[in-house]
């Protein structure tokens, strides 16, 4: 089964990392994301909750296409006999409150629930709010209008010292900005994979292009929407490149940063 995620991240990862908690607050205050409570929790987060419960009992996975709240997920497992029959069914809880409820009954979710990309800090998964709609392409806007819960957004922060690299099967060779000609070699680094390795060790490392005489940091090259790298990221699901670029522009404006974006196919 394939997975597709989109990432937004600061282009200049060699600079001090921005305050992602402050960005989270601005997204909420501006109505770009919704408080993740009750029916305003993304479908992906509810599926992850179900995965976490299913990992406690082999063969117990429960799913209902009509589930809309954490209470709906709890009710599925209670009816199937995998949770205490008297456990409260609370439909307006956040996922944190749901996890606390389970813990009060001696139930600790399995690791499949986390879905945190190995981050040192992450936000909840949010639904996009109405204020984010104008930054989406026409096709994705139609999907959003049909089901706002279909596009989850999560902020991720990494403490380092090395950046996070998020790539998949679609990673391609970079090119110079404004060119479609792939850079098959980046001496003295060799291949594009070697340059990624060098930037992982030193985020400020530069490649000097013999043709134009300029020096480029890794994210100043055009990776054709295929490389995410850095200490701060926003992960999305269900958006196209135009929407990712639109939302990257929004994040850049809110955080005062030059942003880049990518797609990862696993």
What does this structure look like?
- By secondary structure, the protein is an alpha+beta fold.
- The chain folds into three domains: 4-34 and 128-161 and 226-265, 2-Layer Sandwich (Alpha-Beta Plaits), CATH 3.30.70; 39-113, no CATH class; 173-220, no CATH class.
- It is 29% helix and 15% strand.
- It is built from seven helices and ten strands.
- It has helices at residues 20-29, 43-54, 70-79, 95-104, 138-146, 192-201, 241-255, and strands at 4-10, 121-122, 126-127, 152-157, 164-166, 206-208, 215-217, 228-230, 232-236, 259-265.
- Strands 1, 2, 3, 4, 9 and 10 form a six-stranded antiparallel sheet that branches. Strands 5-8 form a two-stranded antiparallel sheet. A two-stranded antiparallel ribbon has the order 6-7.
- The longest helix has 15 residues, at 241-255.
- The protein is elongated and about 70 Å long.
């Amino acid at each position: 089964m394939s997975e597709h995620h989109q990432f937004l991240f600061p282009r200049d990862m060699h600079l001090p990392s921005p305050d992602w908690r402050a960005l989270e607050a601005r997204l909420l205050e501006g109505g770009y994301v919704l408080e993740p409570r009750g029916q305003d929790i993304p479908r992906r987060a509810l599926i992850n909750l179900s995965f976490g419960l299913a990992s406690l009992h082999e063969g117990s996975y429960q799913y209902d296409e009509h589930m809309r709240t954490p209470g709906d997920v709890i009710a599925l497992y209670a009816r199937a006999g995998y949770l205490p029959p008297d456990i409260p069914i609370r439909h307006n809880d956040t996922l944190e409150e749901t996890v606390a409820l389970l813990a009060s009954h001696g139930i600790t979710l399995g690791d499949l629930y986390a879905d945190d990309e190995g981050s040192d800090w992450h936000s909840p998964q949010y639904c996009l709010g109405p204020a984010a709609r104008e930054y989406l392409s026409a096709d994705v806007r139609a999907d959003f209008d049909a089901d706002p819960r279909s596009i989850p957004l999560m902020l991720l922060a990494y403490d380092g010292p090395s950046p996070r690299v998020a790539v998949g099967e679609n990673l391609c060779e970079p090119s110079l900005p404004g060119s479609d000609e792939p850079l098959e070699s980046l001496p003295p680094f060799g291949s594009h994979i070697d340059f990624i390795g060098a930037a992982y060790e030193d985020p400020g490392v530069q490649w000097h292009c013999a043709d134009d005489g300029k020096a480029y940091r890794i994210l100043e090259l055009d990776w054709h929407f295929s490389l995410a790298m850095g200490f701060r990221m926003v992960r999305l699901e269900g958006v196209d490149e135009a929407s990712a670029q639109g939302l990257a522009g929004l994040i850049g404006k809110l955080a005062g940063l030059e942003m880049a974006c990518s797609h990862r196919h696993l």
